[in-house]
Amino acid sequence: MFKRLREDINCVFDRDPAARNSFEVITNYPGVHALLWHRVSHFLWRIHLKWIARTLSQIIRFLTGIEIHPGAQIGRRFFIDHGMGVVIGETAVIGDDVTLYHGVTLGGTSWSKGKRHPTLGNDVIVGAGAKVLGPITLANGARVGSNAVVVKDVPENATVVGIPGHIVSAKPKDASSTKRQEFAKKIGFDAYGTSSGMPDPVANAIDVMLDHIHAMDTQMQNMCKSLKSLGTELDVVKLPDLGGCDISSTPPLPEHVDPDDDEKSPK
Q1: Which pLDDT score is estimated for 87?
Q2: Whole-number Å distance between alpha carbons of 73 and 91
């Protein structure tokens, strides 16, 4: 028991640089308070003193702002940073060395009895405000970005962001998986909020369209070369150079002028 208590306190120093000494952690960390009392309420729950267990968990919820159902199974060295607004459901299962930030919900999506809350493997981090919902599994080493909503299983060592949550990094299995992993390394992972390198979704959409236009332009040039090789004459329209310009300040492209219209227009 005392070994487990020592582990719960010592893990705070590994994950919170603000922690200065054990006395401060024991007296001023609501995440530690909620975890220690959950150990007691979970024991009462297992010996079928369920009303007392629920009552104790509600008292701790009132005192710490953290709601952990006494039926939830929590592993070793579990750490809740700040803690306000954290909710952990009855059938949630949490492995070892897991970290949750404030506002996290491990909730259910069904009113049916049985397994309805998430299972978190070892060394999982769930960022501030994230919602992990349903009887899904976050495998060992998974990372969930802040404010993400996760409703599907997350593979081992994957990083999930967004609403709904989508994987931006995972163990490389193919070329696309490797690209996502490099992308995740580029933007970094921030459990509190969007990192400074997080891409703008509008800019990403524009980049994709530009790539598509570039591919179409290359294909059109190849078609024109093929037609010229067959002796077909084509009207050539010079396109403006977009290299290095700011798209937001680019003037509208000039319309194609038919030479016959110039001859008909008044001088």
Answers
A1: 92
A2: 8
